[in-house]
Specification:
It is a single chain. This protein has helices at residues 4-15, 22-59, 63-99. The chain is mainly α. Helix 1 packs parallel to helix 3 and helix 2 (22-59) packs antiparallel against helix 3.
Length: 100
């Protein structure tokens, strides 16, 4: 889940929303689409990490494999955090579009 600081920052930013000119509204819409694309990419990378984890489990239980599993778990955690941040950003952008 998203960290509290990120949520509070984005919630505070919504209070400061002003109407945007049409060209900026288009930019916000494009950015929102980019967020969705990034979210899909992150989900795909997480699926690949899980598949790689299954592969590594079948290969070896040595220290190198364990180190790789730990590293993959850390990467997955970071990807989850970025996914949460993108979701919050996308909600903010959608709010901008509704108000704009």
């Amino acid at each position: 889940m998203a960290d509290r600081t990120t949520q509070e920052s984005l919630a505070g930013a919504v209070d400061n929303v002003i109407a945007l000119p049409l060209n900026q509204t288009s930019l916000v819409a494009n950015t929102s689409r980019d967020c969705k694309s990034l979210q899909q990419s992150i989900v795909t990378v997480q699926q690949c990490l899980r598949a790689l984890g299954d592969f590594v489990r079948n290969l070896d239980d040595g220290p190198e494999a364990e180190g790789l599993r730990v590293h993959m778990a850390e990467l997955n955690e970071l990807l989850s955090l970025r996914l949460d941040q993108l979701s919050l950003t996308e909600r903010l952008l959608q709010d901008l579009l509704r108000r704009g």
